[in-house]
Prior knowledge:
Blueprint: E1 3-4, E2 7-9, E3 12-14, E4 21-26, E5 29-38, H1 42-61, H2 64-80, H3 82-93, H4 97-120, E6 125-127, E7 133-140, E8 144-148, H5 156-167, E9 171-175, H6 181-194, E10 201-203, H7 208-217, E11 223-227, H8 230-241, E12 246-250, E13 255-259, H9 265-277, E14 287-293, H10 297-308, H11 329-345, E15 348-351, E16 370-373, E17 390-396, H12 399-407, E18 411-412, E19 414-418, H13 422-431, E20 436-439, E21 455-456, H14 469-472, E22 475-482
Parallel strand pairs: 1-5, 8-9, 8-11, 9-10, 11-12, 13-14, 13-19, 14-17, 16-17, 19-20
Antiparallel strand pairs: 2-3, 4-5, 6-7, 7-22, 15-16, 18-21
Amino acid sequence: MAKRYQNFIAGKWVDAKSGETFEDRNPANWEEVIGIFPKSGKEDVDEAVAAARRAFPKWKAIPVPERGEILKRAGDLLVARKEEIARLMTREMGKILAETRGDVQEGIDTAYYAFGEGRRFFGHTVPSELPNKFNMTMRMPIGVAGIITPWNFPMAIPSWKIFPALLCGNTLVFKPASDTPATANALVEILLEAGVMPEAINLVHGSGASVGMAIVRHPDVDLISFTGSSAVGKVINAEAGKDLKRVSLELGGKNAQIVMDDADLELALEGVLWGAFGTTGQRCTATSRLILHEKIHDQFVEMLVDRASKIRIGNGLDENVQMGPVINQAQREIIHQYVRIGQEEGAKLVLGGHPYEEGECKKGWFYAPTIFVDVKPSMRIAQEEIFGPVLSVIKVSSLEEAIAVLNGTRYGLSSSIYTQDVNAAYRAIRDIEAGITYINGPTIGAECHMPFGGVKETGNGHREGGWTVYDFFSEIKTVYVDFSGRLQRAQIDNR
């Protein structure tokens, strides 16, 4: 019998008020039910927000270094449970064990980074323009944070948001993706065991429409951090803007890898295989476009098709498997629809283009690695986010054309160029319109201590990761201390 899970609201594990539930199933074997979860609604969100609001004065009063110590303990617990959580995550969302172990490790790294920031948490001291006066800034918590996360990185992305939010002194309401609720429960259990005040973290399961939007619209939620599609991000931004909430959006991507004619082709090949087919292409940073210089185009495509055709597909719990399933049947149908669109637009399908149903894979939602050539930059498969193992290859004749093609979408998250020309590399760094650029590396591989995010319709200017995320989850308070014993008027008495 499948395990029954609950929400965590107001310091207690509870069912949804409606009594309704939903199933969490294994995309590699749809017959396997991972667990039964509460299908929550607005009433559950109201109770969770009220608890977070009650806890806010107490949680923010804990010294920042002490909050950091709690997060350090959370990191230690993640280390102890790393393999257990990785295996749960693979069962929940399908990616291979090497990747789910990396997902948990990113949570560990983020916890330890937050621990260090608890001893830093810098403000600025600056000289005053007046005598006997002291100026400084300090960081202050904001209030109740709404955390809404996707399924493709069910430990890493929540940790990017939750750990900085808690360190800064905020309390929160957390809505994980309905495709990966069990990993979210494991994270909340760890935070509670580490010492987070029970009402400071509230976990509410359910759909984006019923739970996510109830969080966004709630008048006592002060800030929203969301990762997901650009279409949903626009709706969230519009709704939250009605109450002038602070909003951080990390949205879609249509990332490209450029390979110039002087590149190390074997290295570039390893990069695009990992970037396009790692996580079954289900990353916002996935390589969905490959821009090849015409001089190496034919040779590189031949190398690529040969290697991609040998990718081992199957259940991610098998250590020999290199690519798992897509997340669910609906997403597989979307991917297949885009393949048909590409063919109708005139692109040439040279690999894949069909569901993969060999052997045990018949039980899940697998899709074969898919490669199109003769793709024009204006085609939908080169413009729209597919979120699956589909790669569009575009031929160019120069660095300038390659950069123009790379920039020619509404997204701007990650980018990559392979070249041995240092001048070309620096021109690419300068001219590429993206939040992230890799030189001689794939479009995926973000490190937790570096800022993460994009430009254009990839987000709204905030960054996750590194030191920058703490700017989002805290307010700057400016403090003036006048010890002159008399009225001093800036810009007047000293001029």
